[in-house]
Amino acid sequence: MKTLAYLVGATALAASFAAPAFAQSETSAGANAVGISQVNEDMKDIERDVRDDFARSNDPYRNGNPDQRQGVFGSVALSYSGSTGNSENQDFNLSGRLSSNQGAFSQSVGILLQFGDNNAGKKDTEKTFVIYEGMYNINDKFYAFGLGRLATDALAGDPITLSNGEGFGALEGRAKRDAYFGVGPGYRVINNDTTAWRVQAAVGVRYTKLVDVLTVDDTAPTPTGTLEYDSNTEVGYLLSSRFYHRINDTFFVTNDTDYLTSDANDTITNELGLNFKMADAFATRVSYKTEYVSDRAIRTDNTLGVSLVYGF
User: Fold this and answer.
1) Reported pTM
2) Was domain 12-310 assigned CATH 2.60.120?
3) What value does the mean pLDDT take over residues 178-188?
4) Please, what sign has the CA dihedral across residues 98, 99, 102, 105?
5) Do 133 and 98 form a contact (C-beta atoms < 8 A)?
6) Which of 57, 114, 190, 289 might form a disulfide with 127, Cβ 3.0–4.6 angstroms?
7) Separation of alpha carbons 178 and 271, rounded Å
8) Neighbours of 55 (CB within 10 A)
9) Domain spans of the chain?
Protein backbone atom coordinates (compact mmCIF):
# COMPACT_ATOMS: atom_id res chain seq x y z
CA MET A 1 0.00 0.00 0.00
CA LYS A 2 1.24 3.43 -0.84
CA THR A 3 2.09 5.52 2.19
CA LEU A 4 -0.35 8.37 2.78
CA ALA A 5 1.28 11.75 2.67
CA TYR A 6 -0.61 14.81 3.89
CA LEU A 7 1.93 17.53 4.68
CA VAL A 8 2.04 19.47 1.42
CA GLY A 9 2.58 23.21 1.01
CA ALA A 10 4.96 25.96 -0.05
CA THR A 11 7.15 28.25 2.04
CA ALA A 12 8.29 31.67 0.89
CA LEU A 13 11.60 30.21 -0.27
CA ALA A 14 9.91 27.64 -2.50
CA ALA A 15 7.62 30.31 -3.89
CA SER A 16 10.59 32.53 -4.72
CA PHE A 17 12.11 29.58 -6.62
CA ALA A 18 9.18 29.03 -8.92
CA ALA A 19 7.54 32.42 -9.29
CA PRO A 20 9.88 34.17 -11.78
CA ALA A 21 10.08 31.34 -14.23
CA PHE A 22 6.57 30.99 -15.53
CA ALA A 23 4.91 33.68 -17.62
CA GLN A 24 1.30 33.71 -18.70
CA SER A 25 0.68 33.19 -22.41
CA GLU A 26 -2.39 34.00 -24.46
CA THR A 27 -3.79 31.66 -27.10
CA SER A 28 -4.02 33.18 -30.56
CA ALA A 29 -7.05 32.92 -32.79
CA GLY A 30 -6.71 29.74 -34.87
CA ALA A 31 -4.48 28.09 -32.28
CA ASN A 32 -6.95 25.24 -31.72
CA ALA A 33 -6.94 24.17 -35.36
CA VAL A 34 -3.18 24.13 -35.83
CA GLY A 35 -2.46 22.39 -32.51
CA ILE A 36 -0.92 25.29 -30.57
CA SER A 37 -3.53 25.10 -27.81
CA GLN A 38 -2.70 21.49 -26.96
CA VAL A 39 1.03 22.24 -26.79
CA ASN A 40 0.29 25.19 -24.49
CA GLU A 41 -1.72 22.92 -22.20
CA ASP A 42 1.11 20.40 -22.09
CA MET A 43 3.56 23.19 -21.22
CA LYS A 44 1.30 24.32 -18.38
CA ASP A 45 1.20 20.76 -17.04
CA ILE A 46 5.00 20.66 -16.89
CA GLU A 47 5.14 24.08 -15.20
CA ARG A 48 2.57 22.99 -12.62
CA ASP A 49 4.47 19.78 -11.89
CA VAL A 50 7.69 21.73 -11.34
CA ARG A 51 5.92 24.14 -8.98
CA ASP A 52 4.49 21.21 -7.03
CA ASP A 53 7.91 19.56 -6.86
CA PHE A 54 9.41 22.64 -5.23
CA ALA A 55 6.42 23.03 -2.91
CA ARG A 56 6.68 19.45 -1.65
CA SER A 57 10.35 19.94 -0.84
CA ASN A 58 9.32 21.96 2.22
CA ASP A 59 7.44 20.97 5.35
CA PRO A 60 5.11 23.85 6.26
CA TYR A 61 4.28 22.25 9.63
CA ARG A 62 7.87 21.79 10.76
CA ASN A 63 7.69 24.67 13.30
CA GLY A 64 3.98 24.38 14.09
CA ASN A 65 0.87 25.58 12.32
CA PRO A 66 1.77 27.92 9.45
CA ASP A 67 -0.15 31.11 8.92
CA GLN A 68 -3.41 29.92 7.46
CA ARG A 69 -6.94 31.04 6.87
CA GLN A 70 -9.19 30.65 9.91
CA GLY A 71 -12.77 29.41 9.92
CA VAL A 72 -14.60 27.14 7.50
CA PHE A 73 -14.00 27.35 3.76
CA GLY A 74 -13.85 25.13 0.70
CA SER A 75 -13.96 24.78 -3.06
CA VAL A 76 -15.65 22.72 -5.78
CA ALA A 77 -14.39 21.99 -9.30
CA LEU A 78 -16.12 20.19 -12.16
CA SER A 79 -15.03 19.16 -15.64
CA TYR A 80 -16.83 17.40 -18.48
CA SER A 81 -15.85 16.44 -22.01
CA GLY A 82 -17.73 14.40 -24.58
CA SER A 83 -17.12 13.62 -28.22
CA THR A 84 -19.05 12.15 -31.14
CA GLY A 85 -18.03 11.20 -34.66
CA ASN A 86 -15.04 8.88 -35.10
CA SER A 87 -15.33 7.97 -31.43
CA GLU A 88 -18.08 8.11 -28.81
CA ASN A 89 -16.70 8.89 -25.37
CA GLN A 90 -17.20 11.17 -22.41
CA ASP A 91 -15.49 11.95 -19.12
CA PHE A 92 -16.87 13.63 -16.01
CA ASN A 93 -14.84 14.68 -12.95
CA LEU A 94 -16.02 16.40 -9.78
CA SER A 95 -13.80 17.37 -6.85
CA GLY A 96 -14.51 19.27 -3.66
CA ARG A 97 -12.73 20.15 -0.45
CA LEU A 98 -14.04 21.49 2.87
CA SER A 99 -11.51 22.83 5.39
CA SER A 100 -11.77 24.12 8.93
CA ASN A 101 -8.99 25.90 10.83
CA GLN A 102 -9.67 26.89 14.44
CA GLY A 103 -6.52 27.95 16.28
CA ALA A 104 -4.40 24.90 16.98
CA PHE A 105 -6.79 22.50 15.22
CA SER A 106 -6.94 22.16 11.45
CA GLN A 107 -8.77 19.58 9.36
CA SER A 108 -10.06 19.03 5.85
CA VAL A 109 -12.23 16.59 3.93
CA GLY A 110 -11.91 16.06 0.18
CA ILE A 111 -13.89 14.09 -2.40
CA LEU A 112 -13.14 13.16 -6.02
CA LEU A 113 -15.62 11.52 -8.40
CA GLN A 114 -14.55 10.14 -11.80
CA PHE A 115 -16.90 8.76 -14.47
CA GLY A 116 -16.14 7.94 -18.08
CA ASP A 117 -17.19 6.05 -21.22
CA ASN A 118 -14.74 4.53 -23.69
CA ASN A 119 -14.72 5.00 -27.48
CA ALA A 120 -17.40 2.35 -27.83
CA GLY A 121 -19.73 4.34 -25.58
CA LYS A 122 -19.47 1.82 -22.72
CA LYS A 123 -18.75 2.91 -19.16
CA ASP A 124 -15.12 2.19 -18.25
CA THR A 125 -14.57 4.48 -15.23
CA GLU A 126 -16.65 4.84 -12.08
CA LYS A 127 -14.42 5.75 -9.13
CA THR A 128 -14.87 7.60 -5.86
CA PHE A 129 -12.17 8.90 -3.52
CA VAL A 130 -12.63 10.47 -0.07
CA ILE A 131 -9.73 11.75 2.06
CA TYR A 132 -9.46 13.23 5.55
CA GLU A 133 -6.58 15.10 7.17
CA GLY A 134 -6.46 16.55 10.68
CA MET A 135 -3.85 18.00 13.05
CA TYR A 136 -3.97 19.44 16.57
CA ASN A 137 -0.94 21.21 18.00
CA ILE A 138 -0.76 20.51 21.73
CA ASN A 139 2.29 22.75 22.21
CA ASP A 140 5.48 23.70 20.34
CA LYS A 141 6.75 20.12 20.60
CA PHE A 142 3.80 17.74 20.64
CA TYR A 143 0.89 17.37 18.22
CA ALA A 144 -1.76 14.80 17.35
CA PHE A 145 -2.90 13.91 13.85
CA GLY A 146 -5.34 11.74 11.95
CA LEU A 147 -5.60 10.75 8.31
CA GLY A 148 -7.95 8.63 6.28
CA ARG A 149 -8.68 7.54 2.73
CA LEU A 150 -11.52 5.67 1.02
CA ALA A 151 -11.33 4.54 -2.60
CA THR A 152 -14.04 2.67 -4.48
CA ASP A 153 -14.04 1.28 -8.02
CA ALA A 154 -17.46 0.09 -9.14
CA LEU A 155 -15.96 -1.47 -12.29
CA ALA A 156 -12.99 -3.25 -10.70
CA GLY A 157 -14.30 -6.62 -11.83
CA ASP A 158 -15.67 -5.52 -15.22
CA PRO A 159 -13.74 -6.80 -18.30
CA ILE A 160 -14.71 -3.61 -20.17
CA THR A 161 -11.97 -1.82 -18.22
CA LEU A 162 -9.24 -4.05 -19.64
CA SER A 163 -6.88 -2.55 -22.18
CA ASN A 164 -6.38 -4.11 -25.60
CA GLY A 165 -4.60 -7.42 -25.34
CA GLU A 166 -5.27 -7.95 -21.63
CA GLY A 167 -6.91 -11.18 -20.60
CA PHE A 168 -9.60 -11.68 -17.97
CA GLY A 169 -6.91 -12.68 -15.50
CA ALA A 170 -5.64 -9.10 -15.46
CA LEU A 171 -8.55 -8.28 -13.13
CA GLU A 172 -6.90 -10.28 -10.35
CA GLY A 173 -6.14 -8.19 -7.28
CA ARG A 174 -7.97 -5.04 -8.38
CA ALA A 175 -9.50 -3.16 -5.47
CA LYS A 176 -13.27 -2.65 -5.39
CA ARG A 177 -12.90 -1.04 -1.94
CA ASP A 178 -9.74 0.23 -0.26
CA ALA A 179 -9.96 2.23 2.98
CA TYR A 180 -7.50 3.33 5.65
CA PHE A 181 -7.77 5.43 8.80
CA GLY A 182 -5.05 6.09 11.36
CA VAL A 183 -4.38 8.36 14.33
CA GLY A 184 -1.31 9.04 16.43
CA PRO A 185 1.07 11.48 18.10
CA GLY A 186 3.89 13.56 16.65
CA TYR A 187 6.95 15.17 18.26
CA ARG A 188 9.26 17.94 17.03
CA VAL A 189 12.75 16.79 18.05
CA ILE A 190 14.47 19.89 16.66
CA ASN A 191 12.44 23.01 16.08
CA ASN A 192 14.12 26.20 14.87
CA ASP A 193 14.35 28.24 11.68
CA THR A 194 17.53 26.53 10.48
CA THR A 195 16.94 22.88 11.38
CA ALA A 196 13.69 21.04 11.97
CA TRP A 197 13.18 17.35 12.59
CA ARG A 198 9.90 15.81 13.60
CA VAL A 199 8.77 12.23 13.97
CA GLN A 200 5.31 10.75 14.24
CA ALA A 201 3.65 7.37 14.69
CA ALA A 202 0.16 6.14 13.98
CA VAL A 203 -1.91 3.01 14.35
CA GLY A 204 -4.58 2.49 11.77
CA VAL A 205 -7.01 0.05 10.20
CA ARG A 206 -7.07 -0.87 6.52
CA TYR A 207 -10.01 -2.53 4.78
CA THR A 208 -9.78 -3.98 1.27
CA LYS A 209 -12.18 -5.77 -1.03
CA LEU A 210 -10.18 -7.27 -3.90
CA VAL A 211 -11.06 -9.15 -7.08
CA ASP A 212 -10.30 -12.88 -6.99
CA VAL A 213 -10.42 -14.46 -10.47
CA LEU A 214 -11.57 -18.08 -10.26
CA THR A 215 -11.69 -19.13 -13.93
CA VAL A 216 -10.48 -17.57 -17.17
CA ASP A 217 -11.63 -17.94 -20.79
CA ASP A 218 -9.59 -15.73 -23.10
CA THR A 219 -10.52 -17.60 -26.30
CA ALA A 220 -13.73 -15.62 -26.83
CA PRO A 221 -13.68 -12.25 -28.65
CA THR A 222 -14.41 -10.63 -25.27
CA PRO A 223 -12.43 -12.07 -22.31
CA THR A 224 -14.73 -13.90 -19.88
CA GLY A 225 -14.46 -15.83 -16.63
CA THR A 226 -15.81 -16.06 -13.11
CA LEU A 227 -14.73 -14.11 -10.08
CA GLU A 228 -15.55 -13.28 -6.49
CA TYR A 229 -14.43 -10.64 -4.01
CA ASP A 230 -12.17 -11.23 -1.01
CA SER A 231 -12.54 -8.84 1.93
CA ASN A 232 -9.79 -8.27 4.46
CA THR A 233 -9.36 -6.04 7.51
CA GLU A 234 -5.94 -5.53 9.06
CA VAL A 235 -4.11 -3.27 11.49
CA GLY A 236 -1.31 -1.12 10.12
CA TYR A 237 1.41 0.84 11.91
CA LEU A 238 2.92 3.97 10.38
CA LEU A 239 6.21 5.65 11.36
CA SER A 240 7.28 8.89 9.68
CA SER A 241 10.18 11.30 9.83
CA ARG A 242 10.48 14.80 8.31
CA PHE A 243 13.90 16.47 8.31
CA TYR A 244 14.73 19.99 7.08
CA HIS A 245 18.05 21.83 7.27
CA ARG A 246 18.82 25.22 5.74
CA ILE A 247 22.55 25.50 5.06
CA ASN A 248 22.37 29.10 3.83
CA ASP A 249 19.94 31.46 2.10
CA THR A 250 20.32 29.62 -1.22
CA PHE A 251 20.56 25.94 -0.24
CA PHE A 252 18.52 23.61 1.96
CA VAL A 253 18.28 19.83 2.37
CA THR A 254 15.21 17.72 3.12
CA ASN A 255 14.75 14.04 3.89
CA ASP A 256 11.34 12.39 4.22
CA THR A 257 10.97 8.82 5.48
CA ASP A 258 7.82 6.70 5.92
CA TYR A 259 7.48 3.12 7.13
CA LEU A 260 4.14 1.31 6.98
CA THR A 261 3.79 -2.26 8.22
CA SER A 262 0.80 -4.60 8.27
CA ASP A 263 0.00 -8.26 7.70
CA ALA A 264 -0.19 -7.58 3.96
CA ASN A 265 3.33 -6.18 3.50
CA ASP A 266 5.94 -3.68 4.61
CA THR A 267 6.36 -0.42 2.69
CA ILE A 268 9.27 1.97 3.17
CA THR A 269 9.78 5.20 1.25
CA ASN A 270 12.65 7.65 1.58
CA GLU A 271 13.17 10.84 -0.43
CA LEU A 272 16.29 12.98 -0.19
CA GLY A 273 16.02 16.46 -1.70
CA LEU A 274 18.74 19.01 -2.48
CA ASN A 275 17.31 22.46 -3.20
CA PHE A 276 19.34 25.28 -4.72
CA LYS A 277 18.52 28.90 -5.48
CA MET A 278 21.48 29.92 -7.61
CA ALA A 279 20.08 33.33 -8.60
CA ASP A 280 16.87 35.31 -8.20
CA ALA A 281 15.47 33.71 -11.35
CA PHE A 282 17.37 30.42 -11.46
CA ALA A 283 16.77 27.50 -9.10
CA THR A 284 16.90 23.73 -9.18
CA ARG A 285 15.94 20.74 -7.07
CA VAL A 286 17.49 17.27 -7.20
CA SER A 287 15.72 14.42 -5.44
CA TYR A 288 16.38 10.72 -5.00
CA LYS A 289 13.46 8.54 -3.93
CA THR A 290 13.62 4.91 -2.84
CA GLU A 291 10.52 2.77 -2.36
CA TYR A 292 10.64 -0.72 -0.86
CA VAL A 293 7.62 -3.06 -0.84
CA SER A 294 8.22 -6.46 0.73
CA ASP A 295 5.82 -8.56 -1.37
CA ARG A 296 6.88 -7.41 -4.85
CA ALA A 297 9.01 -9.52 -7.17
CA ILE A 298 11.46 -6.61 -7.44
CA ARG A 299 11.17 -5.09 -4.01
CA THR A 300 12.98 -1.78 -4.47
CA ASP A 301 12.34 1.05 -6.93
CA ASN A 302 14.65 4.07 -7.19
CA THR A 303 13.74 7.37 -8.84
CA LEU A 304 16.00 10.32 -9.62
CA GLY A 305 14.18 13.61 -10.12
CA VAL A 306 15.46 16.97 -11.36
CA SER A 307 13.35 20.16 -11.41
CA LEU A 308 14.77 23.35 -12.92
CA VAL A 309 13.23 26.80 -13.19
CA TYR A 310 14.63 29.81 -15.01
CA GLY A 311 12.80 33.04 -15.54
CA PHE A 312 13.77 36.17 -17.44
Assistant:
1) 0.76
2) no
3) 93
4) positive
5) no
6) 114
7) 25
8) 17
9) 12-310
Distance CA 256, CA 3 (A): 12
Nearest-angstrom CA–CA distance, 191 and 194? 8
Residues 185/200, Cβ–Cβ less than 8 Å: yes
For residue 37, the surrounding DSSP H or E stretch is helix 36-56
What gap in Å lies between CA 223 and CA 215, rounded to an integer? 11
Minimal CA–CA distance to 122: which of 165, 66, 161, 94?
161
Q: What is the structure's pLDDT at 22? A: 54
Handedness of CA 296, 302, 306, 307 (dihedral sign): positive
- CA–CA distance, 134 with 145 (Å, rounded to integer): 5
Distance separating alpha carbons of residues 194 and 201, to the nearest angstrom: 24
Residue 12: pLDDT band (50, 70, 90) is very low
195: exposed, middle or buried (Cβ count in 10 Å: 0-12, 13-18, 19+): middle
Quickly list DSSP for 144-177.
EEEEEEEEEETTTT-GGGPPTT--GGGGTT-EEE
User: What percentage of residues in the chain have a pLDDT greater than 70?
Assistant: 85
pLDDT at 61: 67
The chain-wide mean pLDDT, for the chain, equals 83
DSSP state of 120: B
- In Å, how far from its chain's centre is CA 86? 34
**Tens of pLDDT along 23-48?**
555 567 676 777 787 788 888 878 87
